[in-house]
Description:
The chain is of the alpha/beta class. It folds into 3 domains: 11-66 and 77-81, Arc Repressor Mutant, subunit A (Orthogonal Bundle), CATH 1.10.10.10; 87-202 and 379-396, ATPase, nucleotide binding domain (Nucleotidyltransferase, domain 5); 210-374, ATPase, nucleotide binding domain (Nucleotidyltransferase, domain 5). Helix content is 41%, strand content 20%. The protein is built from 13 helices and 14 strands. It has helices spanning 11-27, 32-39, 43-56, 123-141, 180-188, 197-208, 267-271, 273-284, 306-330, 339-342, 346-359, 362-367, 379-396; strands at residues 59-65, 75-81, 87-93, 97-104, 109-116, 148-155, 159-160, 165-166, 192-196, 217-222, 226-232, 235-237, 334-338, 369-372. Strands 5-4-3-6-9 form a 5-stranded mixed beta sheet, with helices on both faces. The chain is globular, with a radius of gyration of 23 Å. The two termini are 37 Å apart.
Amino acid sequence: MTALATPAPSARRLRTRATLLAVLSEHGTLSRAEISRLTGLSRSAVSSAVTDLLDEGLVSETTSPAPATAGRGRRAAAVTLRRAHALVLAFDFGHTHVTAAVADTTGTVLGEATAHLDVDNHPREVLDAAESLARQALDAAGHRLDEITALAAGIPGALDTRTNVVRAPSTLSQWIGMDPAAELGRVFGRPVAVGNDAEMGARGERAYGTGHTVNDLVYVKASTGIGAGLLLDGRIYRGASGISGEIGHIQLPDTGTWCRCGNRGCLESVASIVEVRRRLVHVLAPGARPGETVDLPPLDRLADVPAAARVIGEAGRTIGRVLADLVNCLNPAAIIIGGELGQAGDPLVHGIRESVDRYAQPAVAEAVDIRATRLGLRSELYGAIDAAITVATTRTH
Length: 397
């Protein structure tokens, strides 16, 4: 008796399979309904493709409690890509530090190393330090460089995605015209993804932080500068040339402070961590002489100090005035506040909330949840890990 040959999958079925693998690689765990919405595929096509991928062992499906709005007792099935075991390397470049981390493709950090450097003004030294830090992180993890599959990095400046070169003279003046991905690729000989640090922060929050179930969020990195990473309909939005989210240079009325970009009244010229610390010194150490170094407590310890909370709350209201316009335009489900200033917690968040409620349209203000990150200062690092995993798994599948 002749066995019947198994028919080859149709071209449509193969395209559907590839589409599902790509969307799961980018977004992580998704319900079947979310896969359908993100891909535009019918529920039946998604169900059939998920069944095929389960049979192949490329995905897993588990049930987890649905959100409270779904009703008592209902549970949603969650589909997750079974990533091939591999190691990735991630970098978080700040203005004054570089952190390298080795992680596996589950997102578990196995080793890391940090150095404090003048990143803005010494790019060559910083790239040399990145190689050294990577080797330190690998040593801590007990692995070798030749085991790394892919890497990614977040940089604190605008990156033109059309050319992959740095474009922002006000932040990374010595990096202008450099292609960080090409530079890191030459050093490590691996596929590289590079993005703005706020974009990486949004990725980190979506993959590992408080934004895990949110498809429309704004991540605000409030530090020396103030930038926003935009996740819209489940995808990072970079704009026409990759320079979206520069909210730190939105100008405020009745503010004449000069900004490093050359304009007056930019948000970051009046509400950056530098300005907030200057005002905190004024209220907490009024006897300090101009230019005198004053050691302030960490921001997360100042919430119960009335004078400090007022300063932080005012910064929040100023930032919230700009974010209210963004809320009106984008109607996000969440705004997640990170960066050094984000560590101030409730006084900052409450100030932002106050301005959003005052200046945004009531319906969109009501829809947005404003919260501080629970990843602390590691959102950008985890975003780079997520980006590196995406590169690694896209190559695998």
